[in-house]
Write a structure and sequence with these properties.
2 copies of one chain form a homodimer.
Chain A: E1 4-8, H1 12-24, E2 29-33, H2 46-50, H3 65-70, E3 73-76, E4 79-85, E5 90-95, E6 100-104, E7 107-110, E8 114-116, E9 129-130, H4 135-146, E10 151-155, H5 159-170, E11 174-178, H6 191-203, E12 207-209, E13 214-218, E14 225-228, E15 231-234, E16 237-240, E17 244-246, H7 249-253, E18 264-265, E19 277-279, E20 284-287, E21 294-295, H8 300-314, E22 328-332, E23 335-341, H9 344-349, E24 354-362, E25 373-381, E26 387-394, H10 399-410, H11 415-419, H12 435-447
Parallel strand pairs in A: 1-2, 1-7, 2-3, 7-19, 9-16, 10-11, 10-16, 11-12, 18-20
Antiparallel strand pairs in A: 4-5, 5-6, 8-17, 13-14, 14-15, 20-21, 22-23, 23-26, 24-25, 25-26
Helix pairs in contact in A: 1-8
Chain lengths: ~450, ~450
């Protein structure tokens, strides 16, 4: 009899898990269940549809019906899993018409993702507070924009908050961002680097207030503004971008253990503490490669890789997910911002002593027309001289520099080795002395 | 008494050596001697001035007179060193007016560079065969173009040959390239990857003939064409781009040992076999980091790094140059081509068994407008599973992928580790599954 594999969730982690599982087991009955009306789309692309760079929300659907057919994947949409029964190895679900179903599994992969988190601020229950997580969220925001909305307030200056804010501004709205912390992009950047990005955004007329905690949401029935840091800010559209929290209720109710990050605890094979039950994606906790502590970075790249490992193992293969550096990158207007490993600030919180090296340079030979500025900060562990983090802001070629530094961190490269590294050069493409190498040299000098 | 440091050559290696030496020794008398009328310019930029992307040849002069003044460097231009006297630790030179001078040194750094190599083909002595090595070469070619020249023939399809050919085509000339080998860019690419680049160049109307050895240079007094592979090709302008050879006569005459690559033999401190004499740049031989054999890649990035090490040591510091991967990149029309480490072909020549993984992907999320094609080939040592080389052709973001793979090679990353590497992602900047990682996976599958 063929193996029954059930996957709860059908996005980055879920679909990659299903695909990997199929590769290992040609006959398994693989079922993907999502409560959403859309499956297999790119959440990360949503702000860029709002901004108009991507023509349509439908463009984000990466996996077409033909894909599921080709891989013989059974996809159930608009169906909510309501219970996992680990004793009987089954799940219960309910579809949009209220029909319930019980499905047995040999292997279960939980990819329930994460949901936007709205803190219980005074007035949090008011209508009209939107967030950008699903395709439906995106369409809703788009509708509100098309209605002629003129002003938007974004609560939270993380990646999604800023990307959404910029998207709305590019559609002609006047956008204000409020952030509780003293800086924007706190998960990616130290304060010094965040300041540079904030100035750039402000030059582009995005209004950002840091160190302003949202204390109250104003409005009668419908939210019409906030009080943040004691100041009243009105806006027709309110976007909650406080961050996301792993969706773990289903797992927790079934007695599946959560970890210290409150996401589902997994081992390197993406197995939970319950036999034959895996977890992957934004709901799953994995070790950080530097700190070796559990982390839950909730990035698309991590979700697909976890999904692949979970699916391979569920399909009878053997794969390990060793951990993450949470490398991330974004494009804010014309500026690329990237990060990998630990910031100085994050290192300090876990008592790692660091030195850092920061350099400003150009993305092409100085004499080559079109050279754009780039700023690189390298974070080094003082004791080992190992590179443990990097932050880059630049006009081009940021992403792959982040990847290069991610590889360096993963292979325990020291700052001395980086300062001597062999790099490629051509005047239209980079400087003779690669800025990453120069940043390492600055850090190295501080260690002498 | 202050130390006397003499540097023969004043370009990438020479000026970086002088700068590094000054950092270590504030009082040293540092003298740079070049036979050229220009010093401290970027040779790599020359084809892009010819092509018109960089407005003027003067733009390539990276180090202004103010720089030498600031660092108290004594620069002698249009002065040829004619002898090194290692017994008496002095050099003899002659300037453009015929005045000779003897200069004592405590430390000597030889940065004599390399010169274009014209094989002794029948007719090689004919007038009008040009090459592109110096600023003066560039100005001469530019003059000939401005005279209304309509056709050019490039002998050699290496980096300089192709870049120069494209530059001339962009100025309106009809350009033909002939290459003896079965492929273009043989130092950077395997045949399969080279074919793709060749096709792209041909689509852009650059005419390329491979496997055509230049057998004769035609013309009365002045060269007017060639016979290559039995075929006659006429052109008003002939460019010799057969490659360069290290300038070692001065060193060899002084009894300084050359290595098996015929460049000057050096140790990791860039010392020659003669006391207090260093060599750096295109004239100096250094180990390849993979093969541990002597190599002489003659790239600008290597020259500056060698110069820095030689200058630091000459100035009383301690620095090591560990070796090279010969990472290189160029932009041919709108296509970026990069390479690091060994090609399959180069590995085969030294009896390293390899497997390779090649993948075609996009530079942005598939649904993001403007995504450009990218092709990546990863070369893996079969025995160790270590990555030992990479070749990339793409519309953008090639350089830093080459650097990332260079770091991976330098840190002995295995193909399995690369297939699991943590990478950054955002729809406008790259794909969720980084193509470098996918190429590793293709190679990994072949090893199973």
């Amino acid at each position: 009899m063929s193996k029954k594999v059930v996957i709860i969730g059908a996005h980055a982690a879920g679909v990659d898990a299903a695909s990997a599982c199929r590769k290992k087991d040609r006959t398994a009955e693989i079922t993907l269940i999502t409560k959403e009306p859309n499956a297999g789309y790119s959440r990360c692309g949503l702000p860029f549809v709002i901004g108009g760079q991507i023509p349509s929300f439908d463009d984000l659907i990466v996996f077409s019906p033909a894909y599921y057919k080709m891989l013989k994947l059974n996809l159930k949409k608009e169906t909510q899993v309501i219970k996992i029964d680990k004793q009987n190895k089954s799940i219960n679900s309910i579809d949009k018409n209220g029909a319930t179903e019980r499905l047995d599994y040999d292997k279960l992969i939980i990819c329930t993702g994460a949901s936007p988190f709205l803190p219980r601020i005074k007035g949090y229950e008011k209508k009209g507070i939107m967030s950008l997580r699903t395709l439906e969220d995106g369409r809703q925001i788009d509708q509100v924009v098309k209605r002629g909305t003129k002003t938007a307030l974004i609560m939270g200056a993380g990646l999604i908050g800023l990307e959404t804010g910029i998207g709305l501004q590019e559609r002609g709205l006047k956008v204000t961002v409020v952030e509780m912390l003293p800086q924007i992009l706190p998960a990616m950047l130290d304060l010094d680097m965040a300041k540079i990005v904030k100035e750039m955004l402000e030059q582009k007329r995005l209004l950002i207030f840091t160190e302003k905690r949202v204390e109250e949401i104003l409005g009668e029935e419908k939210a019409t503004g906030v009080i943040a840091g004691g100041e009243q800010i009105n806006a027709e559209m309110l976007i909650s971008a406080f961050g996301v929290r792993a969706n773990t209720k289903l797992a927790a109710d079934a007695g599946i253990a959560l970890g210290e990050t409150r996401a589902i605890k997994t081992n390197l094979r993406m197995e939970t503490n319950v036999n034959d039950v895996f977890a992957a994606g934004d709901c799953a906790e994995v070790p950080n490669l530097i700190t070796h502590k559990p982390s839950c970075s909730q990035l698309g790249t991590i979700a697909v890789r976890q999904g692949k490992v979970a699916g391979t193992n569920a399909g009878g293969g053997y794969a390990l997910f060793e951990g993450v550096l949470a490398s991330a990158v974004t494009k804010l207007f014309d500026t690329e911002v990237g990060s990998t490993g630990l910031t100085v600030n994050a290192a300090k919180r876990i008592k790692i002593e660091t030195v850092s090296g920061t350099i400003s340079s150009k993305t092409r030979a100085d004499y080559f027309p079109g050279a754009k500025p780039i700023k690189i900060k390298i974070v080094v562990e003082k004791e080992s001289h190992r590179i443990i983090g990097a932050q880059i802001i630049g006009g081009e070629e940021v992403t792959q520099r982040i990847n290069a530094l991610s590889f360096a961190i993963q292979k325990h490269m020291t700052v001395r080795e980086l300062a001597k590294a062999d790099t490629a050069y051509a005047p239209p493409l980079c400087e003779t002395w690669e800025p990453v190498v120069l940043a390492a040299e600055v850090a190295l000098r501080k260690l002498r």
